[in-house]
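TA notes, week 10

Several of you asked for a full example with nothing omitted. So below is the full record: C-alpha cells for the whole chain, then the designed sequence directly under it. When grading your own attempts, check the secondary structure regions first.
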C-alpha cells in the first residue's frame, strides 16, 4: 500500500491505513505492507519520519506565507536534515480568502534553513511542493541576507552543505512552462495577476546575479520558483518521489510483493510525470507487478493509465456518489474502494 496524500482529506499515512483496512476486510489472509509516499509536498516529513526509525525532530518557529508565526520541524537522521517547505509556505496554511500569490512570500523557509545549518548537518534536503507563494524564493533569500548581517558567513555555510531540492515538478522558472504560468492560477492568480507575477519574476532574475543561469534548470519553477533560489544557493534537483522511494525502501518492498496499490487525491495528466503515482506505477512495471490505484477523482482514461503502468483506477467520487460525499468521509470510501479491488484482484 504505497499512496501519496489525498490533498485536503487524508495524509499519506492515513491513506495507507484506510486502504489496508478495506483490503484486509475482504482478504484477511493477505500480508499487507504499508509504505506511505511523498513527492516533497505536504506530508514529506511525516512519511520520512515513519521510514527513518533513527530520526529525531527539532521544533522551529517560522512564518507562514503572510508572515504570521507557525510551527515547523526539522527532521534529523545521521548527517542529514530534512525540511518541508510547505510547513512555511504551504497553500494549506491560508484560508481560501487569503490565497493571493501577489502577497504571499517565502521568507519563512529561511528560518528552517538556518535551523538546519545550526544542527551541523552536512546534507540538507528541502521538500518542495504545495506552496502558496510565487516569489521565486526572493523572500527566503532576502531573509537570509538580513540574517547574514548578524551572522557573517551564513550563506556560505549553506552553500558548503550538500543541498538537495526534492520537488514534485521539473518546470523551469520562467515562460509558458514556468512557475507562474502553470501554477499561479492554482494559487488564486487571475490572468492579469499571472502577467504581473511573471513580470516580477523577470525583475528578480535580472536583479540577482547568477539567477539567470539556473532559471532554466529542472526544478527551478518548483514551489513558486523557490527551486530557482535554492539552485542559486548551490542546490541540485532530485525528483522528490524517487528520493522518498529510496529512503523508504520501495525497491526492496516490491521485490517481495505480488501487487501494488497506490493513490492520491486527483489522478490527472500531471500524475504521470514526477509525482508519486507515476513513480510507483513505473517501479511496479519494472518489477512486473500489477499496479492498482485509488483516487478522489480519476481524470485519466483507462488506455492512457495502462500505458503508464496502472492496471485499474477507481475514483472515490464515483463510489461515494460525489466528490463532496467522498471528501466528507475519505477514509471510509478509500477502504470501500480497496475492498472492491480486493474482490477483483488476487495477488500472486
Amino acid at each position: 500500500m504505497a499512496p501519496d496524500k489525498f490533498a485536503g482529506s487524508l495524509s499519506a499515512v492515513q491513506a495507507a491505513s484506510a486502504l489496508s483496512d478495506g483490503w484486509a476486510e475482504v482478504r484477511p489472509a493477505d500480508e499487507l505492507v504499508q509504505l506511505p509516499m511523498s513527492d516533497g509536498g505536504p506530508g514529506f516529513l511525516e512519511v520520512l519520519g515513519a521510514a527513518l526509525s533513527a530520526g529525531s525532530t527539532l521544533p522551529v518557529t517560522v512564518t507562514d506565507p503572510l508572515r504570521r508565526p507557525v510551527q515547523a520541524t526539522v527532521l534529523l537522521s545521521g548527517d542529514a536534515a530534512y525540511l518541508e517547505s510547505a510547513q512555511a509556505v504551504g497553500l494549506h496554511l491560508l484560508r481560501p480568502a487569503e490565497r493571493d500569490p501577489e502577497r504571499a512570500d517565502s521568507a519563512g523557509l529561511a528560518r528552517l534553513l538556518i535551523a538546519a545549518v545550526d544542527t551541523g548537518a552536512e546534507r540538507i534536503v528541502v521538500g518542495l511542493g504545495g506552496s502558496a507563494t510565487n516569489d521565486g524564493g526572493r523572500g527566503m533569500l532576502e531573509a537570509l541576507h538580513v540574517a547574514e548581517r548578524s551572522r557573517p558567513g551564513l550563506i556560505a555555510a549553506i552553500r558548503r552543505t550538500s543541498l538537495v531540492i526534492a520537488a514534485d515538478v521539473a518546470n523551469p522558472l520562467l515562460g509558458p512552462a514556468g512557475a507562474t504560468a502553470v501554477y499561479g492560477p492554482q494559487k488564486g492568480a487571475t490572468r492579469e495577476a499571472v502577467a504581473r507575477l511573471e513580470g516580477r519574476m523577470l525583475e528578480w532574475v535580472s536583479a540577482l546575479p547568477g539567477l539567470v543561469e539556473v532559471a532554466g534548470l529542472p526544478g527551478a519553477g518548483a514551489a513558486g520558483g523557490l527551486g530557482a533560489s535554492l539552485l542559486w544557493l548551490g542546490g541540485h534537483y532530485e525528483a522528490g518521489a524517487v528520493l522518498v522511494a529510496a529512503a523508504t525502501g520501495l525497491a526492496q518492498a516490491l521485490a517481495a510483493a505480488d501487487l501494488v496499490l497506490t493513490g492520491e487525491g486527483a489522478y490527472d495528466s500531471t500524475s504521470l510525470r514526477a509525482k508519486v503515482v507515476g513513480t510507483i506505477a513505473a517501479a511496479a512495471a519494472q518489477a512486473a507487478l500489477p499496479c492498482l490505484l485509488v483516487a478522489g477523482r480519476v481524470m485519466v482514461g483507462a488506455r492512457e493509465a495502462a500505458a503508464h503502468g496502472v492496471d485499474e483506477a477507481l475514483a472515490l467520487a464515483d463510489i461515494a456518489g460525489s466528490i463532496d460525499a467522498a471528501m466528507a468521509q475519505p477514509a471510509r470510501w478509500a477502504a470501500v474502494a480497496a475492498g472492491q479491488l480486493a474482490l477483483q484482484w488476487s495477488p500472486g
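Residues 191-207 form the longest helix (17 residues). Use that as a sanity check on your answer.
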